[in-house]
Specification:
The complex is a heterodimer. Chain A is an alpha/beta fold. Chain A is built from 15 helices and 13 strands. Chain B is α+β, with helices and mostly antiparallel strands. Chain B has three domains: 224 residues, no CATH class; 279 residues, C8orf32 fold (Roll); 171 residues, no CATH class. In chain B, strands 7-10-5-1-15-14 form a six-stranded antiparallel sheet, with no helix packed on it. In chain B, 46% of the residues are buried. Classes of the chains: A alpha/beta, B alpha+beta.
Chain lengths: 367, 792
């Protein structure tokens, strides 16, 4: 929505653009029009995906003011079945975003507050001896939920972190030699503070790679901040949020997003961009092939969000910073004296790469 | 860090921007004005004004191409080099005489031509008095000089950013008149130059960017005032120096202004015949004089007569000028009687390059008007000379007689010779016998002196003899001494001196008084007509020697024994016209065409020595032809682009092309109209760039059309195939036309013109491949502004 706002969107975008100024009627219409979807994982058309996504976004944005693009990427990641890392200074609404997103979907949500003494079994669950049945019985941990909010993930010890990240990649939990599958949808929304604060363990590169995207919230503008003061005065805004889609509907949306078509030209473009990060003079570590995969997947989800049945190079452009940024490591030379600004430097670098990578059109020749 | 990551791609930064291009057209323009103001000072030493326009062209092209090269972002050090290349191309075009490849690229021949031009220019400068006629050679030197000065000034003022020093090269053209002329350069030119210089400095200060000079080699900001004062001081100094130089330097010897020592004509006057040979052998003819005449037959111009054979050459008989014989009234020549038919003709002569104390006049002259200095005539030698003046710069009008003796009059001239004619009959004692023998053999059967003379003339003009200025059979062959003529009659090769001497000696051996006249042939007719009379140009290759024989009752009668040179007088034409092969006979003796034109040697020398009027015309013609060629060449891209647009539209109309083609056409149109497009832009980014333009984003129907085109294009490019309704969409063409019109309408007039004439879409793929494509920053900036992250 962000990039395609206004007149230039596709035809259906126009209607949604108008609807975004509407009220909760859209949200209601979604649940009204698809009562049958509540029961199962049924086929959802792209138009419905767009409508539902819109409803979720409205929901979330009623809590988070003025963070449209962050919300959109968060939703894109949710739809693409990826995991999201929200990295920012305390107090800008990281956790609020995660909670609002989770609450908009009628699904199981759990929240893990990571602390230095948190153990892996606190995340995955433990087998406990059942005296009555005289056998070990698996008590699922908080990871067994559709949406898991991992708060301040970098405060946990590396051991716990890796336990979580293993679940994220494998989408299953192995305890005492027994594997338990995690239900779809399964999305981890983790938050962390970016700078080395007291008692934190930074996520190593290999583990950051597991997240599909990283976003930061940024401070709200003065207008949004004022509005926030008015709306949050009395109650927590989260109370007002009702779920707008069911887990089954979300699964349907995910399926629909996977079905979005990515043409050869777009794939070429994604590969070209990712490869360029590996050869860039300012980057010590480029993006992995997994990054390419996730870039395309996220692009598909974003196309679905806009009700488009094909991916555009613009989707790649829009997501590249979020999807690639946290996987890249700048050279110390490029970083120079701005060691605190590595995220900014990486963002600049990715944008430079995007600006320098030719966009394939898939059309041969110039007539 | 505190910004929203993952926002739109519209927030992409513009690509690395390069420093601003230091193109400063006003400065280039002021340099042009300054240089040409300086060159106008040359007006006091050069005649006419056509040269100034050629210099204008040269300076304009040089300065404009320097600015253009800078604009194309060539490295600063390369600019003078490339500009020098342009100057060479231009000189080849203007002065290469078509020897250049495509008239532009110099070849080996061009270098030869240039060398010749330079040499001719130097000779021309040395031989001419001021104001000098600007011949091709001088023009070439001027053009080279001005071109180099322009490059120097451009480099100083713009390349090195020392505009104050740009005044120094201008001192060159200002100082030249001071060296040559006693009065120096005209004060108007000096004032104009000074004003132009001050304006240049003012313009430069004005153009100087406020605070970015730290990178440049300029004085740091803040010292502007000091710098300005300094430049003004230098300027004042320069102007004062120019004034002092031009007024105080004494006239530079006599050489440049016509002393005899540097003359192309007879150096000392002692051995004129030998010097004449040298003059004829000069590779480049210098201009001698020009004239207009009312005579039917173009006259020979006589300088002096020689009748004293001494040693190896002929010398003028020593006669003191008689102060009584002023040129306002010259006696008729001795021996001429009233029976001889005559016409009085007037000839107006202007001296170009003759520098001597002898006046070239048609013979026999009866009066000369308009001369400066005291000039006297001598009835024996018929020469007009001055003790205190020279021919340099003279413009005068000669009244002379055109004699038409009949053959009968000449045949019957058998009376007694007057007293004092004896020296004209003397042959040296050691004269080779071959001269007399040959004369008798040739004239066997002649019944009168006249018939003998015609027989001698025909013999020498016959096919046995060859005209050859390079003919020195051995050392000392120049000149007309008896030994030499003996050799000549056997070798049968030589030039006018030999032919004239041979005829004169053979005549003397037969008892006919004879002498030799030195002077000029009638020269070449030009197309310039003044007062109904054609102007004729005579150059140093027209120097000539011819014999005069004395006939009682008629006096001294000239003959023309040199083959291929001059024209035979009517009375000396052979009656059966068997020998000369020229159109002769009683029917048309008077209107014999200018034989010079058919003469190989003459034509050669003339074609390389066109004078200013013809030269400038030819140069302008050449420029015109090249301009037309360039124009046609310039039209090619526009036509090609139109043809391509038309073909695409036809295919769209037929439904044979899909939206991608429509988009390509739209992209090309945008590129043509100055929208920065690169292949790193997505279709959406381009359309956002277009929306930022006037007439597109603010017009709903255009926006809708652009939107439809964009969606159709994306569908064609990226959707699953077969794309529905991608090809043959009937709305594509109208939408394309709508947007194209809007893009065109939103462009400046200049952009529109450029889009038609030099469509950038044709060249940009090539340039891009070479890494020279223009910045695409403007599109990105247009889209980026509204989307700056709020949290930053």
């Amino acid at each position: 929505m962000n990039t395609f706002q206004g007149k230039l969107g596709t035809g259906t975008d126009l209607t949604s653009g108008a609807a975004s100024t509407g009220t909760t009627s859209v949200r209601e219409s979604v649940s009204d029009r698809h009562p049958e979807h509540a029961e199962g994982d049924t086929i959802v058309s792209l138009d419905d995906v767009q409508r539902a996504a819109l409803a979720i976004m409205r929901n979330v944005e009623s809590v988070i003011d003025g963070k449209h693009s962050a919300v959109q990427i968060a939703l894109t990641v949710l739809l693409a079945e990826g995991h999201l890392l929200i990295e920012d200074v305390p107090g800008v609404g990281k956790t609020m975003l995660a909670k609002a997103l989770a609450k908009s979907v009628d699904s199981s949500v759990s929240r893990i507050q990571f602390t230095p003494d948190l153990l892996p079994s606190d995340v995955t669950g433990v087998s406990v001896y059942n005296q009555a049945e005289r056998r070990f019985e698996f008590k699922p941990g908080p990871i067994f939920a559709n949406i898991v909010i991992g708060d301040e993930i970098n405060r946990a010890s590396p051991k716990t972190q890796s336990a979580l990240l293993e679940c994220m990649e494998e989408r299953q939990v192995t305890v005492d030699g027994h594997s338990y599958r995690l239900d779809r949808p399964f999305t981890v929304v983790a938050t962390q503070n970016p700078i080395e604060m007291e008692g934190t363990y930074a996520l190593p590169e290999a583990q950051r790679d597991r997240f599909m995207a990283r976003i930061s919230m940024g401070y709200p503008d003065s207008q949004s901040e004022l509005a926030m003061l008015d709306s949050r005065d009395l109650t927590s805004p989260l109370v007002q949020i009702d779920p707008v889609v069911t887990a089954a509907q979300l699964r349907g949306m995910m399926t629909a997003a996977r079905g979005v078509y990515a043409s050869g030209a777009v794939k070429e473009y994604a590969v070209a961009v990712v490869r360029a990060t590996r050869e860039d003079r300012d980057l010590r570590l480029g993006a992995s092939p997994r990054a390419t995969l996730q870039l395309i997947r996220a692009a598909k989800a974003q196309a679905a969000l806009h009700g488009r049945e094909y991916v555009l190079p613009d989707d790649i452009d829009a997501l590249a910073v979020a999807v690639l940024g946290h996987r890249l490591v700048p050279t110390t030379r490029a970083l120079g004296h701005r060691s605190q600004d590595s995220a900014l430097l990486i963002e600049e670098t990715v944008r430079r790469i995007l600006a320098a990578t030719p966009v394939p059109t898939g059309v041969q020749g110039r007539l | 860090m505190i910004t929203v990551t993952g926002t739109s791609r519209a927030a992409r930064p513009a690509r690395r921007t390069r420093p601003p291009v230091p193109v400063r057209w006003p400065l280039s323009l002021m340099l042009l004005v300054l240089l040409l103001a300086g060159c106008s000072a040359l007006g006091s030493v050069l005649a006419g004004s056509a040269w100034w326009w050629v210099l204008l062209i040269v300076a304009t092209v040089v300065l404009a191409s320097a600015a253009g090269i800078r604009r194309a972002r060539a490295p600063a050090a390369l600019v003078p080099v490339l500009t020098m290349g342009v100057l060479v191309l231009l000189l080849t075009l203007l002065f290469g005489s078509g020897t250049g490849l495509l008239w532009l690229l110099p070849t080996g021949d061009t270098l030869t031509v240039f060398a010749d031009q330079a040499e001719a220019g130097i000779v021309s400068i040395q031989t001419q008095d001021t104001p000098a006629e600007v011949f091709d050679g001088i023009l070439f030197l001027l053009a080279v000089g001005v071109g180099v000065l322009a490059i120097l000034m451009d480099t100083l003022a713009i390349g090195l950013r020392w505009p104050a020093l740009a005044g120094i090269p201008v001192l060159v053209p200002i100082a030249v008149p001071g060296v040559v002329e006693p009065d120096g350069a005209g004060w108007t030119a000096l004032v104009a130059t000074a004003v132009a210089y001050l304006v240049l400095l003012r313009v430069e200060v004005h153009l100087r960017p406020p605070a970015v000079d730290t990178a440049g080699p300029v004085a740091p900001v803040g010292s502007d005032g000091v710098a300005l004062r300094g430049t003004v001081a230098i300027a004042a100094l320069g102007i004062v120096a120019a004034l002092v130089v031009s007024s105080s330097v004494p006239q530079y010897g006599g050489a440049a202004s016509g002393g005899r020592s540097s003359s192309a004509l007879f150096g000392s006057g002692i051995t004129p015949m030998i010097d004449l040979g040298d003059d004829l052998r000069r590779p480049q003819a210098g201009p001698a004089l020009h004239y207009r005449t009312s005579a039917e037959e173009q006259p020979y111009f006589a300088l002096l007569t020689l009748d004293d054979i001494r040693g190896a050459t002929w010398l003028p008989r020593a006669v003191e000028p008689d102060p009584e014989n002023t040129v306002t009234d010259i006696e008729i020549p001795p021996g001429l009687t009233q029976e001889v038919a005559r016409t009085t003709v007037t000839t107006v002569v202007g001296i170009d390059g003759v520098a001597t104390d002898l006046l070239p006049v048609p013979v026999p002259a009866t009066s000369v008007a308009g001369l400066t200095g005291d000039w006297f005539w001598n009835n024996n030698t018929r020469s007009i000379s001055s003790a205190d003046s020279t021919t340099v710069g003279q413009r005068y009008s000669v009244t002379s007689l055109e004699l038409q003796p009949t053959r009968e009059q000449l045949r019957q001239a058998d009376g007694r010779y007057p007293i004092g004619i004896e020296p004209s009959l003397v042959l040296p004692a050691d004269t080779p016998a071959v001269i007399g023998e040959t004369a008798r053999t040739v004239t066997a059967g002649a019944t009168s002196n006249y018939d003998a003379a015609v027989a001698l003339q025909d013999y020498l003009r016959g096919s046995d003899f060859t005209y050859d200025t390079e003919a020195p059979v051995d050392e000392g062959y120049d000149g007309g001494g008896a030994d030499v003529i003996g050799t000549f009659l056997e070798a049968k090769r030589g030039y006018c001196v030999h032919f004239a001497s041979a005829m004169a000696m053979m005549s003397r051996s037969l008892g006919i008084p004879s002498r030799i006249t030195l002077g000029y042939l009638p020269g070449t007719r030009t197309s310039t007509v003044i007062d109904g009379l054609n102007r004729y140009n005579v150059d140093s290759h027209d120097l000539h020697a011819w014999p005069e024989l004395y006939f009682t009752g008629v006096g001294w009668v000239p003959f023309e024994p040199t083959p291929g040179r001059g024209s035979i007088p009517d009375y000396a034409q052979p009656e059966n016209s068997a020998v000369s092969g020229q159109p002769t006979g009683a029917a048309a003796p008077q209107v014999a065409p200018q034989q010079n034109d058919a003469d190989g040697l003459q034509t050669d020398s003339l074609s390389t020595d066109t004078t200013t009027d013809d030269g400038v015309g030819e140069i302008l013609l050449r420029i015109g032809l090249v301009a037309v060629g360039l124009l046609i060449l310039l039209l090619v891209p526009g036509v090609w682009r139109r043809w391509r647009a038309r073909r695409r539209r036809l295919r769209l109309a037929d439904g044979r092309a899909d939206a991608a083609v429509a988009w390509q056409e739209l992209t090309d149109t945008a590129v043509d109209h100055g929208v920065g497009v690169s292949d790193t832009l997505t279709a959406r980014e381009l359309s956002e760039g277009l929306l930022a333009r006037r007439g597109v984003g603010d017009t709903p129907e255009v926006t809708a059309a652009l939107d439809r085109l964009l969606v159709a294009t994306e569908r064609t490019r990226y959707a699953r195939r077969p794309a529905p309704a991608a090809a043959g969409d009937p709305r594509l063409l109208p939408d394309l036309d709508t947007v194209t019109r809007a893009v065109r309408g939103g462009s400046s007039r200049l952009d529109r013109l450029r889009a038609v004439l030099v469509p950038a879409s044709l060249s940009s793929p090539v340039l891009r491949r070479m890494g020279l494509a223009g910045d695409t920053a403007d599109v990105r900036e247009g889209a980026a502004d509204e989307r700056t992250p709020t949290g930053a």
